[in-house]
Design a protein that fits this description.
The protein has 502 residues and is an alpha/beta fold. 30% of the residues lie in helices and 16% in strands. It has two domains: 374 residues, Alkaline Phosphatase, subunit A (3-Layer(aba) Sandwich), CATH 3.40.720; 79 residues, Arylsulfatase, C-terminal domain (2-Layer Sandwich), CATH 3.30.1120. It has twelve helices and 17 strands. Strands 1, 2, 6, 7, 8, 9, 10, 11 and 12 form a nine-stranded mixed sheet that branches. The chain has a four-stranded antiparallel sheet with strand order 13-14-15-16, covered by helices on one side. The radius of gyration is 24 Å and the shape is globular. The termini are far apart. The N terminus is likely disordered. The structure holds calcium ion. Calcium ion binds next to loops.
């Protein structure tokens, strides 16, 4: 090749490269612009105390007795149009899960490890010789220096700063009464309907003003216009939430709606719209009452999904459905799972979980990988196209569930409850692949279960498989150390109990 030909060839190539880089820069700008315009609306539809089997959607390999009892057609629709997670986990009690959702932190890291209500007051029961650690009994805050709180950069605040209209409707339970975190607006919600410090409503009934008439701390705030009416709280929150969606669409802003139902937590008050139907099916009154609360919640989901259709935003709205812990002791056990709310067993921590995002996540799909409630935080921020990793104060433990490159390497899911409460002693637990390891602090006792073969956790394998038990104990101990988890202490000496495997 002569120099002349070489030169002649080089010029078009140079021009081509120059043009390519211009095109590339333009498309980068366009992509950024597209992201701004096409940012999805985001809805978290969070149910309180709903067990893994309290739905007609089978999350188990087979349809169970409870799947056949309950009627949740809207959940069925969501599962058909989205991805159903069969191995999804939360903390075993309310506040820890809720702080994990807005912080992305595991409960062992954020330290709000039991439920919160009154400032400076722990609900813990006494245990012989052992005290709980100085856990964050006042909940979360965004401000430094507030005693017994975890300081975070919360999810709604990041979304608000990125141009989202941020709406909280229903139960909050992020901070104790009298602390800044008692009001959801402290965490960056533009709008708060009915959320405050308490983790349950005084009553579900409008005719009782959503109050139990005795301890006013449980009164649902801000719903005065509904007082005296014959209407259920779950329906009221649905109407309020849909009005907020409509308002967001009218002003042309993407929205983040945290529709966090008080249902299906106690008090045990039937929803009269659905109760008789279940009595007629031959259920006992408490069973029918529970079924009516479940269907009431599902009716809410159905109305929200219909509203998205009506407003033609169903394809640009990401919907995440979750419960915050397992079913409580007062309602039928979620067989085949062992244990209920508060327990380290699957009945306490395995939850119904569905994500619908048309065009972005598979429809009518099942995902059996191990996922946990703090995954909601990065999943939402990534979906919103927010470059968030430099933003939070806190270390984020969750993972983005929409990430296609999400590997299948064994993941360590950590559960941490250093308390004695309602007959449940202090524990830490680890799920890694098919294995579940549980450490009970009070008795210094370990358990090992093979969830693939023994979902009901009937057979403790820790004595027969000592090497594996020790390996998992050490992994859990290291995870707890890494997250600076607070463990129970000996009352006489103030000394921390040893971490599992240490
Ligand atoms: Ca709960």
């Amino acid at each position: 090749m002569t120099d002349q030909i070489r030169y002649a060839c080089a010029i078009p190539i140079l021009i081509l490269f120059t043009n390519l880089s211009v095109v590339d820069a333009q498309s980068r700008v366009m992509r950024k612009g597209d992201r701004q315009n096409n940012r999805p609306n985001i809805i978290i539809f969070l149910v309180d105390d709903m067990g893994w089997q309290e739905t007609s959607v089978p999350f188990h390999r087979v349809s169970t007795k409870l799947n056949q009892r309950y009627h949740t057609p809207a959940m069925e629709r969501l599962a058909r149009e989205g991805t159903k997670y069969t191995h999804a986990y939360s903390s075993a009690v309310c506040s820890p899960t809720r702080i994990s959702i807005i912080s992305g932190m595991n409960a062992a890291r954020h330290g709000v490890t039991n439920w919160t209500l009154r400032q400076g007051v722990s609900p813990d029961d006494q245990l012989d010789g052992i005290d709980p650690p100085p856990w964050n009994l006042n909940g979360a805050t965004t401000e430094p220096g507030y005693p017994r709180t975890v300081q975070i950069t919360p999810l709604p605040e990041i979304l608000h700063q990125s141009g989202y209209r941020t709406i909280h409707v229903g139960k909050a339970h992020y901070g104790a009464s009298g602390t800044p975190g008692a009001d959801p607006r402290h965490f960056g919600f533009d709008v708060n309907v009915a959320g405050h410090a308490a983790g349950a409503p005084g009553s579900y009934y409008g005719q009782k003003n959503f109050s139990n008439g005795r301890d006013l701390i449980w009164d649902v705030p801000g719903l005065e216009r509904w007082h005296g009416q014959r209407i259920n709280l779950t329906e009221v929150l649905t109407i309020e939430a849909i009005a907020q969606i409509e308002e967001s669409v009218a002003i042309g802003k993407p929205f983040f709606l945290n529709l966090s139902h008080y249902a299906v937590h106690s008090p045990w008050e039937e929803d009269s719209r659905f109760y008789q139907k279940y009595l007629d099916q031959g259920l006992e009154p408490m069973e029918a009452l529970r079924a009516s609360m479940i269907e009431s919640m599902d009716d809410s989901l159905g109305r929200v999904l219909t509203a998205l259709d009506r407003l033609s935003i169903e394809r640009k709205t990401l919907v995440i459905f979750a419960s915050d812990n397992g079913a409580p002791h007062a309602v039928p056990a979620n067989l085949p799972l062992r244990g209920q709310k508060l327990a380290p067993y699957e009945g306490g921590i395995r939850i119904p979980f569905i994500i619908r995002w048309p065009g972005r996540m598979r429809a009518d799909a099942t995902d059996d990988s191990n996922v946990i409630i703090e995954d909601i935080f990065p999943t939402i921020l990534e979906a919103a196209g927010i470059d968030w990793k430099t933003k939070p104060l806190q270390d984020v433990d969750g993972r983005n569930l929409v990430d296609k490159s999400r590997g299948h390497e064994p993941r360590n899911l950590v559960f941490h409850f250093p308390h004695q409460y309602f007959k449940q002693g202090p524990f830490s637990a680890l799920i890694r692949g098919r294995w579940k390891f549980v450490h009970h602090y009070a008795e210094d006792r370990d358990e090992l279960f093979d969830l693939a073969l023994d979902l009901s956790e009937r057979k403790d394998l820790s004595k027969g498989q000592k090497a594996l038990t020790m390996k998992l104990a050490r992994i859990l101990g290291l995870e707890l150390k890494r997250m600076k988890a607070m463990v129970p202490v000996r009352r006489m000496t103030g000394q921390r109990l040893p971490l599992p495997g240490h």
